[in-house]
Amino acid sequence: MKEVKFNDLTLQIHKINDLINENIQIVINSNAFIKGNFVKQFEDNFKKYSNVKHAIGVSNGTDALLIAMESLKSKGEVLVQPTTYVASASMIPRIGNEVKFIDVDKDSWQISLDNVSDKFSKEVVGIIGVHLYGFAFDVENISNFMKKNNIWMIEDSAQSHGAKINGRNTGTFGDIATYSFFPGKNLGAFGDAGAITTDDDDLATLCRKLADGGRLSKYEHEILGWNSRLDTIHAAVLDAKLTLLEEWNIERRKIAKIYDDTLSNIEQVTLPVKLKNTDPVYHIYPILVENRENFINYLRDEGVSTGIHYPIPLHLQKAFSYLGHKEGDFPNSEKICFNEVSLPIFPYMEEDDVYYVCEKIKQYFKKT
Questions:
Q1: Between the CA of residue 26 and those of 56, 85, 235, 248, 355, what are the distances in Å?
Q2: 315 near 338, Cβ under 8 Å?
Q3: End-to-end CA distance of the chain
Q4: Domain span at residue 221?
Q5: Both 200 and 156 in a single domain?
Q6: Angle, CA 330 vertex, CA 70 and CA 289 arms, to 5°
């Protein structure tokens, strides 16, 4: 029996192990563990990769969202979907805004312009649009709608490093984009790390101040801020890994195509519909199946590890119970969260392992 891991981060670095070790040793020798040269170097390289004017390294993706919202100032309701990691919504009330959940599209599993306009009101000041699973949401149309109504938009790009829509990078449509470099992400550090990107000079300056105690120079604190700096060692690792990110994304797309071609023929498996003219980066390969626990247990017994993203929609989480939502309020999101299974996908995964997973899934549904 094969054993197929859900993810294997060790495979990612075999081509750049020497470069990573060299970069880390440079940091150690320089003693510049905070605000060292690799921080600026990575910021410069990441902004070029992302095709934006500014990139600000921060300590994690959650802080990136918090700082981005604080820089945008307007207070009121912020639209966000329930099918996402908790940070996408939990930072909204932290700075005095109000969470307003919107459902996702039943086919793409992403937010759509219809979802947004359905919940739009004069109280809405902004939206956090999540490029979930590494797929792009309808960011062009939603961005145009937001600009027309003078509403800010943050693109939560924590799972979409390198994804594109009509040849344009996700993270370049809104006022600001935020990134997580959690180790399991397409571009991951050796711990928690994140970034903020924008084309707005004033927003970039403000975000940089907010992330570093309200200052740009060492002892002159112009505003109140946080301590959310990107550590130099993480920047050194990220800068090395960035050289292979496109290769890794191509690897993910190859694996996803095998899954697409095979699983789309199984009636009991539902796949998300990819929006036209988009190039996902498949941070996660999600499917929907009924009786999820039985399915997961069967694959586990056959040596296949899986994941779930995310089992409880945010509107049903205890932390958001004060909003008064109940099951049935966001049916598309609930269907996804209650039935989603994430299949193994990672760079340099053996194709034989991908076909093995597909064969075991076919066998499972022949038996049920």
A1: 22, 35, 12, 26, 42
A2: no
A3: 21
A4: 9-242
A5: yes
A6: 115
Same domain, 287 and 212: no
Sign of the dihedral through C-alpha 239, 43, 160, 291: positive
User: 295 near 364, Cβ under 8 Å?
Assistant: yes
Q: In the structure encoding, which two tokens stand for residue 302, read together?
A: 């056959």
| pLDDT tens track for 149-190 | 999 999 999 999 999 999 999 999 999 999 999 999 999 999
Task: Tell which of 182, 208, 242 closes a domain.
Answer: 242
The answer to whether residues 169 and 291 belong to one domain is no
80 and 101 Cβ atoms separated by less than 8 Å:
yes
Question: How do residues 233-249 score in pLDDT, each as one tens digit?
Answer: 999 999 999 999 999 99
Give the three-state DSSP class for 117. helix
By DSSP bridging, strand 152-156 and strand 124-130 are parallel
Residue-wise pLDDT tens digits, 256-289 = 999 999 999 999 999 999 999 999 999 999 999 9
Q: Which amino acid is at 232?
A: T
Coil, helix or strand at residue 357: helix
What's the number of domains the chain is made of? Answer: 2
Residue 1 lies in a domain: no
Would the pTM count as exceeding 0.70?
yes
**CATH of residue 228:** 3.40.640.10
Distance CA 161, CA 348 (A): 18
Any residues with CB less than 8 A from the CB of 219 and at least 6 apart, and which? Answer: none
